[in-house]
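Researcher: Here's a chain I'd like modeled. Treat it as a single chain, no partners, no ligands.
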Amino acid sequence: MDTIKSLLSPFGVNTHSIQDTLKLVVIGGTVETARRASVTAWNGFIDSFYLTAHFSQEDYPYDWLMHWLSKQPAWGRSREFEITTRAVGRNGLTQTTTGDVEDEDELEESEEDVVQGRRKRKVAFMPSLDTEHTIYYRGHWLRITRTKRFQDYGHYSALKISVVARNNDILKKLVLEAKREYEKDAEHRVHIFMADTTYGCWRWNGARQKRPMSSIVLEPSVKEMLLADCKDFLRSEDWYAERGIPFRRGYLLHGVPGSGKTSLIHSLAGELNLDIYVVSLSSKGMSDNTLTTLMGNVPSRCILLLEDLDAAFTRSVSRDSASTGAPTASTKSATETNDGSTLSLSGLLNSLDGVAAAEGRLLFATTNHIERLDPALSRPGRMDVWVNFTNATKWQAEGIFKCFFPSKPSSAAAPAAAAGPSRDSSQTNMPIPKRKSAVSAVPLLDAEELAYLAKRFADAIPEDEMSVASLQGYLLKNKTRPRECVDEVAEWIVQERETRARLKKEKEEVRASLPFPSCNITKAHLISRRVGATARSEGEEGGEIIVPGCRVRAVSSQSGPADPRRPRRQRARRCVAGVHSSRHSFISRIGPHLTI
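Model: Modeled as a single isolated chain. Structure tokens:
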């Protein structure tokens, strides 16, 4: 202090005020340091008695505990909380909690409310963010804190639970109880996960009500065979390990559109209590590395779904000389102008059964055109079980009709129904009603009349002509008119045939308008976005024309013998062409100047 006073005295500065200020700074700093040290020591001493568990929103236990917390009555007495109407957890249901804003009578929805869209929202009390809450559980006080963390791809919530205990048994009991309650409330739903190609991870997309197996009408023994095969696979992990066989199983569902392929997968997932992981191979940003990462992160005991396998590639789903090759400059530019997907067939094959592929999952692939798939993709080991789906048969039509219209319970079945619910496996996944429903307008038919109407309906349906989806659409329009539905089905079939004939005629007119008198082009389909579109022709084999500027190959049929002096391939002088972006479309316009 004397040194500072001697330095400032030549300038005539009053040093007393400076001395007082420095004293305050030193004393204040010392006190604050001591305070912080004491607080840290005290918190450390208190925390030494606590056991703390951390839960991230990206994992299942977070959903279990948030679902459990939403049902605790303590939030109704708390002074600080969060009110939400959003779904709690992945099960898609906001649970009723003590202290909900609505009265119990108001929670019931009338038929008028449902029809007019006025659905009541349930309000749940939740722990607020960045606030410490305390609740009592099994003789212990739990400290609960919710926080929000930020990362490059977004933000996510985290949960911290602390308890004073000598061991972590109380936390284990808490997690197990939350898990049981969560699974009990979510047992009637199937969770759907979608592939995120940007970050190579899986995103929860929602939960859907389980579909009972009895609602899927297929040829006899098909459902039973698939269900039995899936169950046998899931319990054969040790058998696969003992023999050194990768624990994977693949199913290829092929056939006409609208025949129930996806519906069957949904029903199987509900029957087996498995989640569905859906990957779109044509998604923007999908590449070999991204797909390999996604396949490696698929959890065991789930269903992995590849829909429309034949139409999902930027290259052809085969490995011919015309569709495999390394990308040229033109194909690279075509890919960049399309959707940015660089997935190849070899990349898909490696992701399905390569060294990085996940095990324990059920792979389901659907396709409408099995002939377009490469044999390497559909071989056993990748696709072990093939199931063909056709248009509706008379047997299926009769079964679908019986599913849509209920029958009166027989006198013998009435006491059994009163005694308790049936344990039939096909009915155990029926969703539990969540509200009081109005009296159904569907007339109840006795078993004899139902069988008679179903037989009449099936006899009117032509064999293997109408899709199952079209039959379901017709029955949905007449879901309260079973007798009129049977009487009018013949007229509906006539209308369907007229519609198909009209669409076919329009296609023929478009085909006839193409400026190729020597080419009998019947269809144009995209072999791949990377390779281009192909216009195929009927008739005699002719020369192949490479049309620059539109990525189209047309095969020309010749009326006479081929001229050996002409080269087999010649480029067109000028061509103005447009091809629709859809995978199955006709060439809209091709210019007139071609040199053959």
